[in-house]
Each structure stands twice: as structure tokens, then as C-alpha cells.
Amino acid sequence: MGFPGWVAVAAAAVLAVPVSAPAGRAAPRADVADCPVLNADPAWFGDNRAALQDFIDRTGVCTRPDGNPLAVFDWDNTMVRNDTGDATLVWMLRNNKVRQPDRKDWTTTSRYLTPAAADALSIACADTAETGQPLPTADHAPCADEILSVYLDAETTDHEPAFGNHDHRRTEPALAWAAQLLAGWTVDEVTAFARTARRESLAAPQGSTLTVGTRQVPAWVRYYEQMADLTGTLQRAGFDVRVVSASAEPVARIWAEALGIPGEKVIGVRNRLVEQELTPHLVGCGGAEEDTVIPYVDGKRCFINQEILGITGGAAFERAPAKRRQAFAAGDSTTDVTFVGDATGLRLAINRHHRELMCRAYDNADGKWLVNPMFIDPLPRRASPYPCSTIALTRPDGSAAPLLDDRGRVVPDQADTAY
């Protein structure tokens, strides 16, 4: 089914399919005839669909009519294939929508930009536009190339590091930079950019590329139909479905709205506003200084705790009490490992070979993890075990260390079995 059709089904259909109760499953309420049921789909790996259905039956309105359990999803490469933040920045570069920074000083766009990166960007872009004016990146390849290299590779085109001196568990400067490059536009203008980029990405043939500067980048994004069905089924089962993303919040909101997830239930990287115009400064979390925390690894927990659970100050970085936390969470990368691990009922990891997330998911110490291959173009099996016992954990300073479970035990290396 094409995109418009299945989104309409996901957003509007209520499946009137009775649910039976196998041994060990809590029986749905007898007086509820229309218990929400996931579509039968062979793309779910192994018993994952059955486990998800069992969780929905036990936790949703069919058995807990007065409940409102929380379900939180990452967005990019969890709900869709490819990255919506990338797609938006690519569209902006192709349409001359990135502005020359204040005083042509690129350090004003990110506190974490290295002198080498700021100099490289200045050399590539300084003579092409005045302060505050759009850069001609559609036609001036050196400027577009330098911006893409800093963003996608975190290094200059001369292979010098682009960012440094940040907490690797609270922010990813390149992801933050994509939002910071929106500075100078209003919320409505950025929303329009994201909507147009979304339309073009969905229309582009699967697997197609675009040339930006001299670089080939993916032209397409696709919603995962299985994840759209999952979020819709959870909503019909009474769950409070939320999105937490490291993409700019106006971008994440535009993509989520097609699945019936309203903007107020989407958390992304938030620019500070001056009269509805975005600035390069970012709203912080947990009492930390602005620009230092985005929804990334431990920062995702902080924003969930602060914005959804109402936990403020430094406590927002700590694991909330179990009775307050999300019942379900899903993610695809180390970006998501903390908030997915906080889920009390069931956790879904989309397998993109990100070692910290996959180590926790495959270790499955409490039996609440599911691993599923990507639904479009899944990766081949990892040839060697994930190095959980040696280098799977990323410390705040960026160094690697053995991964410990919640009991302090070193997680053993894990074979890749869902591919």
C-alpha cells in the first residue's frame, strides 16, 4: 500500500478483532469487544509481534481501562528509514536556506566547533554572502561541501576534527548544529521547509541519491509501516504515545503528525526564540547551561523526565521511579540506550549495529528487550560479537569502556542473532 493509504489506515482504523488469551497472558476484559490488534506482518522478527501484542493486551485498555501508560519512540531510523534531520538540511542547502552567521564567525553557530572547522567554513563560505543572508550553497560547491563534511562526518574536508570538549552522553554537536543552522528563520518558515523536504523525500525513489556540492547523499526517506501500525495500535489501546528525537523539533513534529502524533507530544532539539525567530542557542535540560544538552543518550532521559514527568533540576538526569517511567520505548542507536533502558514493560531495539544499545538488548538481563532488523534494507549479520566486555560503553569524555549492567556486572560479548 502506498504512503497516503497506509497512513490513513494507521491513523483512522480501529481493528475489531477479538483477542484470545494464551497461557500466561492476562485475559482482556470480556466487555471490550474491540481490543486493538497489530497487523499480521512477516517483517516482525521471530516472536516479536506476539510479544508486542501480549504486552499491549496486558498493559492497555483491554485489561487496564483506567490506565494511561506512556510509550516513547525515537524517530530517525526507528520510525523511518533514513534521517529526517539530514533530509531537511540537504533541502536547505539545495535551496539556499542556510544563513551566513553573525559577523561571518562560525563559532557563533556552536560552542563546540573547533577552530579548524570554523576556519574551514569561513574560507569556504565567507565571501559568498553577508551576515544574515542566505548562503548560495545550491551553486557554490565548496561551501556546501564544507557544511556537509562538518555535519555528516564531524570533520572538515581536510579531515580535521570539527567538534570537541562536549559531554558525549548529553549532546552530539553535529546533531545540535543542524538545528543551530536554522537560525534566522521563524518557526513557521522552518515548518514549511520541513514539510517540503518531507514531501520530496517521500516522493524520491527508494535508494536514490542527490548531489549536494560534490557529495552524493540519500534523497529518500520512508516511514516504516510496521512502526506506524505499532504506534496506532498503542494509541487505540490507551497509551500516551510520545516522540523524543535529536532532530530539530519543528522537523520532528512535521514527520510525526502524519502518524497522528500531535506536536505537543514531540520533543526535539529546541532553539531559543526571539519573537518567533530561531536563534543558534538551544534550550537546555536539568538545570544545565543552554547549548550543552540535547535529546541524546542521557539527555533524552533528561528531556523525558523534565518535559513529560515534571522532574526538574539535576534529578532529571537520574532514572525516575519505576511507577512514573515509560512502560514502552523503542530506539535504534546508542543515542537511545538510556531512555529505552528506562522502560519498565517492554523495549524494542531496531538493529543498526550500534554496540551499546545492541549489547544491552542482546544481554536482555531482565527479559524485557526485543531486537528487530530494520524493516527496509536490513543490515547483514555482524560477523563478530559485539565488544560489550571491552569498549561498548561511551564515557562522557568520549573514551570507551566495558559496559556494565544494572547490577554492576560486566556485560559479556554478544552475538548478533536478529538480522
TrEMBL record:
<comment type="pathway">
    <text>Amino-acid biosynthesis; L-serine biosynthesis; L-serine from 3-phospho-D-glycerate: step 3/3.</text>
</comment>
<keyword id="KW-0378">Hydrolase</keyword>
<feature type="signal peptide">
    <location>
        <begin position="1"/>
        <end position="23"/>
    </location>
</feature>
<keyword id="KW-0718">Serine biosynthesis</keyword>
<keyword id="KW-0460">Magnesium</keyword>
<dbReference type="InterPro" id="IPR050582">
    <property type="entry name" value="HAD-like_SerB"/>
</dbReference>
<dbReference type="InterPro" id="IPR036412">
    <property type="entry name" value="HAD-like_sf"/>
</dbReference>
<keyword id="KW-0028">Amino-acid biosynthesis</keyword>
<keyword id="KW-0732">Signal</keyword>
<protein>
    <recommendedName>
        <fullName>phosphoserine phosphatase</fullName>
        <ecNumber>3.1.3.3</ecNumber>
    </recommendedName>
</protein>
<comment type="similarity">
    <text>Belongs to the HAD-like hydrolase superfamily. SerB family.</text>
</comment>
<keyword id="KW-0479">Metal-binding</keyword>
<dbReference type="InterPro" id="IPR023214">
    <property type="entry name" value="HAD_sf"/>
</dbReference>
